[in-house]
Every structure is written in C-alpha cells, then in structure tokens.
Amino acid sequence: MLTTREKEVMSLTKDGLTAKESARELGISTSTVEFHQANAVLKLEARNIKNAIYMFALINLDSANDSFCGPKPCQRNKKDRRKAA
C-alpha cells in the first residue's frame, strides 16, 4: 500500500495544504511532495489527485474504525445489539 511518507503527504493534502506548504511542513522539496502524490494516485488506482484524496480518506476512516473496534468489529456490533434488545 502507501509508504509512511506517502501517507503523510496525502494527509496534509487532504487537510488542504498545497504542495509548497506540505513541503515546508515535512522539510522536503515541492517536487518530492508531487512525486509522493503521483505515487499515491497510482497505488490507489485513482483517476486524479482529488479522487486519490477521497480514497485515502475512506481508507483512513476504515482504519480508524478497525483500531477502535479491534480485529473483529462485527462482534462488537452484535454485543451492542444485544444490549439494546
């Protein structure tokens, strides 16, 4: 999947930073930020950077749910349903 640096770049891009701002934040060149963005587009099989940002956000949302619920999120949902019944 994405490298740590590609994730950092995509996270900053998702938050609305330009390539120049992201470069300053990460201490790398603007062309390196653009390189990582292009790699993310390819790896996520996105049509463009906007589509890659959307896909990245979905992956991060899914990852956040997994870490919150543990390795078996469906079991947590079943327990919650039993409590509500």
Strand content: under 5%
Low-confidence stretches: 66-85
The largest sheet is: none
Helix content: over 70%
CATH class: Mainly Alpha
Q: How many helices in DSSP terms?
A: 5
How much is the radius of gyration in Å?
17 Å
Return the CATH architecture. Answer: Orthogonal Bundle
Give average pLDDT, whole number: 81
Look at the structure and name the CATH superfamily.
Winged helix-like DNA-binding domain superfamily/Winged helix DNA-binding domain
Separation of the first and last Cα atoms: 40 Å
CATH topology: Arc Repressor Mutant, subunit A
Total number of strands: 0
Principal-axes geometry comes out as globular
- Count of discrete domains: 1
Structural class determined from secondary elements? mainly alpha
Structure described in brief:
By secondary structure, the protein is mainly alpha-helical. 78% of the residues lie in helices and 0% in strands.
What is the strand and helix layout of this fold?
Blueprint: H1 4-14, H2 19-26, H3 30-43, H4 49-69, H5 73-84
Helix pairs in contact: 1-3, 1-4, 2-3
How would you explain this protein's 3D organization?
By secondary structure, this protein is mainly alpha-helical. The protein has a single domain (4-84), classed as Orthogonal Bundle (Arc Repressor Mutant, subunit A), CATH 1.10.10.10. It contains 5 helices and no strands.
Please give a handful of descriptors for the protein shown.
single chain; 85 residues; mainly alpha; Arc Repressor Mutant, subunit A; 5 helices; 78% helix; disordered C terminus
